[in-house]
Design goal:
Layout (H helix, E strand, L loop, with lengths): L2 H51 L1 H9 L8 H12 L14 E3 L5 H17 L1 H12 L5 H6 L3 H30 L9 E3 H18 L2 H10 L5 H6 L1 H15 L5 H38 L1
Parallel strand pairs: 1-2
Helix pairs in contact: 1-4, 1-5, 4-8, 5-7, 7-8, 9-12, 11-12
């Protein structure tokens, strides 16, 4: 065998070895991802089962809460209206509209879907924890340190967003839509699916929107977003936030839109601060690198 053929054979063996090693590493990562997904699924199933078992409380107190005049938000509005002499119009004492079921398996399906939805919301911090455990080994020490509070901050923002959506956005929207009428001849009769999907959509969308600082942090780490860019585009952000508020709250009244927009404005300003801190850390690291 000639020397050239021996060299080619050695190269082929080495390349084949690298390919096999890469394939093994890829399948090892898939196996590890599968373990995290299984654990997450088990956690969601357990939480869903608990919600299904205690469904009377979940349905009567949580799901149907925004449709009752005794809901916390409506009671606080009455107290605020009385304190500032805002008149009886600010105090909500009745939510019109009869809620009905129009499908044979509608109530059973509602119980399963709402229990699963609640299980996913309650299990969200644990899902983030499993995601963090999966990506953590691939990060460098500096990256691990900078992202150490990812699960805590993301969970906190999501929970705050869920609470804001459930106690502010959902009841204000439900009150407006329930009282809205284009003709006295039309009576509002709402299906339970429509009511539940409205409450769930408003609540979950608000929770997702409150993750804005986390998204900005990731984009800033990747070098895609900078505080200078966000400050320059603030006027466009204001318009975009108003549009988002109009979409999230299907109510044309200005007070409701401003109530939803105000936290989004604050989140945008917080995101600018977050992006600025990321940029400062990067500049500091670059300066130390070139000095050494």
């Amino acid at each position: 065998m000639s020397k050239e053929r021996k060299t080619d054979l050695v190269k082929s063996v080495k390349e084949k070895g690298k390919t096999i090693e890469a394939e093994m590493s890829f399948f090892d990562h898939l196996a590890e991802l599968r373990i995290h997904l299984v654990r997450s699924s088990i956690a969601v199933v357990i939480l869903t089962s608990i919600c299904f078992f205690y469904y009377d409380f979940l349905f009567d107190t949580i799901i149907m809460g925004p449709h009752k005049p005794t809901f916390w938000t409506y009671r606080m509005m009455c107290k605020v209206g009385e304190y500032f002499n805002m008149g009886p119009g600010f105090c909500i004492t009745n939510i019109p509209g009869k809620i009905i079921n129009t499908e044979m398996a509608g109530q059973f399906t509602l119980q399963i879907n709402s229990a699963l939805m609640t299980g996913l919301v309650l299990g969200f911090p644990y899902l983030l924890w499993e995601v963090w455990r999966f990506i953590k080994p691939a990060l460098k020490d500096a990256e691990k340190k900078s992202a150490s509070g990812f699960v805590l901050y993301a969970s906190f923002l999501f929970i705050i967003g869920i609470m804001f959506g459930y106690f502010i956005v959902a009841p204000l929207s439900i009150n407006f839509l329930s009282n809205y009428s284009i003709s006295p001849d039309i009576e509002n009769t709402i299906t339970i699916d429509s009511y539940f999907s409205s409450v769930a959509t408003l609540t979950l969308c608000t929770g997702a929107i409150f993750e804005l600082p986390i998204v900005i942090y990731i984009l800033s780490q990747l070098g895609i977003m900078t505080p200078t860019f966000m400050k320059e585009k603030r006027r466009y952000a204001v318009v975009l936030i108003l549009i988002i508020a109009a979409i999230v709250t299907p109510t044309p009244d200005i007070p409701t839109m401003l109530t939803v927009s105000l936290p989004l404005f604050l989140l945008y300003e917080v995101s600018i601060t977050v992006s600025g801190r990321v940029l400062k850390k990067k500049q500091k690291a670059e300066k130390e690198f070139f000095e050494n």
